[in-house]
Amino acid sequence: MSTLTLTGAAFADTIHENDIVLVDFWAAWCGPCRMFAPIFENASAQHPDVVFAKVDTEAERELAGQAGITSIPTLMAFRDGILLYSEPGALPAAALEEIIDAIKALDMDAVRREIAEHRDGSVTQP
Questions:
Q1: Which residues are catalytic?
Q2: pTM summary value
Q3: What's the CATH code of the domain at 55?
Q4: What are phi and psi of 20, to 5 degrees?
C-alpha cells in the first residue's frame, strides 16, 4: 500500500475510520524528512493492514499547528482513534518496525481503561 497525502479536511476521518494510522509530518525542504520518506514508504508496503499517511507541513500549516508539530519529521501513531505515539526525528527502519509491532500488540481495552481511569482521576500519580 502506498502512503496517503493527508489534509486537514480528511485528518479526523482517516484517524477514526481506520484501525491503525501512522502519520508522517514532513516538508520538502527538510533533509531528515527526505531521508525518512523511503523508510516510511517501504514500511507501508510491509504492513498493508496499516494506513500510512503524510502531512506536508508547508501546505497544511493549520493542521500541523493543531497537531502541535514543532519539529519535523514527526511521526504520530494512532490506533482505534487514540494517539499512542508522537515523536520528532527520522527513524531507522528497525525502530519504525518496533513501533508498528508494539502498536499492533497493544491490548486496546486496557489502554481505554487506563485513559478512563486517568480522566476520572481514579489513578494517583507517584
A1: 30, 33
A2: 0.90
A3: 3.40.30.10
A4: -125, 130
